[in-house]
Amino acid sequence: MAPASPSAAAARWASLGESGCGKSVCSQSILRIVPPPGRIVSGQIVFHRRTEKSGGTVVEEKIEMTKLDPDGEKIRSIRGLEIAMIFQEPMTSFSPVHSIADQIMEVILLHNR
Question: How far apart are CA 57 and CA 70, in angstroms?
Fold first, then answer.
C-alpha cells in the first residue's frame, strides 16, 4: 500500500481486495483493535497528524501507531475522529436496541468533549 500524501489537506484511504486477503486485519491493526490472539509483531504504522495552530501555521506530528497503548488516551483521540473503519456487517456494527441516530450521536459527543 502506498502512503497517502502528507501534504494533502484532507485524505481518504480505502482498502479494496478479494475476500480473505487481509483488509479487515490491516484496518484493525491501524486502529489497534486486533482481536486476541492476534497481535502486531513487527513493522510500523505511521499516522501523519496535521494540526492548524493559531495564525494559520500547520504543524505535522508523526505518530507511530504500533507504539501506542491500545486503550490509551492518544489512540482514543484518533479512533473514530481521524481514522475510522466502516464494518461491512451492520448487525455486528450497530446495537439493535438503540437507534442509529443515538449511536452516531454518541461517537460525535465522545470526540467533542
Answer: 30
- pTM of the model as a whole: 0.64
Residues 6+ apart with CB under 8 A from 75: 31, 32, 65, 68, 69
Residue 42's pLDDT band, with cuts at 50, 70 and 90, is very high
The pLDDT tens digits of the residues spanning 86-108 come to 776 666 667 778 888 888 888 78
| Residue 59 DSSP code | E
- Which residue is it, cell 470526540? 111
CB 58, CB 51: distance < 8 Å: yes
Cα separation, 54 vs 8, whole angstroms: 20
Q: What is the 3-state secondary structure (H, E, C) of 92-109?
A: HHCCCCCCHHHHHHHHHH
Q: Per-domain residue ranges for the chain?
A: 23-111
Grid cell at residue 30: 491501524
Confidence of residue 72 (pLDDT cuts 50, 70, 90): very high
Q: What is the rounded distance in angstroms from the CA atom of residue 1 to the CA atom of residue 27?
A: 12
